[in-house]
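subagent[fold] <- orchestrator: predict structure for attached chain, return C-alpha cells only, no commentary.
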Amino acid sequence: MATPRARSSFVDADVAAYVLAHTSPPDDVQRSLQAVTAERTGGAAGMQIGHDQAVFMESMARAMGARRAVEVGTFTGYSSLALARGMGPEGRLVCCDVSEEWTAIARDHWDKAGVADRIDLRLGPALDTLRSLPREARFDLAFVDADKEAYLEYFEEILPRLRTGGVLLADNTIWGGRVLDSDAADADTVAIRAFNDALAADDRVRVVVLTVGDGVTLAQKL
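subagent[fold] -> orchestrator:
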C-alpha cells in the first residue's frame, strides 16, 4: 500500500515528514486510492492532492457544517472523497471532470468508502456544467483543481453560486514557485499569476494563500 505523502516543495523535507507523522493517517480506502492512482495513471499521479491537504479539506468541510459543495477537477477522487466525508451523510457534492477513465477509479473508491450517494459526477466541460446550475447562492464550499487557464472563469461562475461566508479553495496557486519567476511565461504560469492578482484585489472575497501542497488559495465570500 502507498504511504502518506505531502506534496509541498516549499517545506523542508524533515518538516514535511514531521507534519505527516502528526496528521491523522489515511485509512485503507485512501491508501488503496493512492496506490491505484500511482499504478494506473503513470506520471499523472502527481496531480493527486497530498494526504495532509485532504485532511485539511475534510476538516474544513466538517467545521463549516458544509452541506453543498462543488468541485472542478476530480481526477481519481482523493479530494472529493475528503469533501464528501467532511460534509457527512446529508452532504451533496457536484463533481466536474472530463475523464471517464480516471473518474472510474474515483467511483470505485467512493463506493468502497460509502459516500457514492453524496456525489453527483458530471462528465463534460466544467464551464458548461457550472453554467447549467441555477445562478443563486447554494454552495457552502468549492474546490478548483483543473485547467489553469480557466481558473478565473471558474471563479466567476462559482462566486454567485456560493453563499455569503462560503469558501472557494483553488489548488496549485504557487505553481512550484514559478509564479515568482519573472522569466516564466508559459500559459499556465501566466494564468495563475493573473488569478492570484485578481483575487487579491477583489473586494468580494477575503483571501489567503496557504503553503499547503502546491499552494492553496482560500477565498471567503463576503
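orchestrator: received. Logging for downstream: The chain has eight helices and seven strands. The helical segments are 13-21, 28-41, 51-64, 78-87, 100-113, 126-132, 151-158, 187-200.
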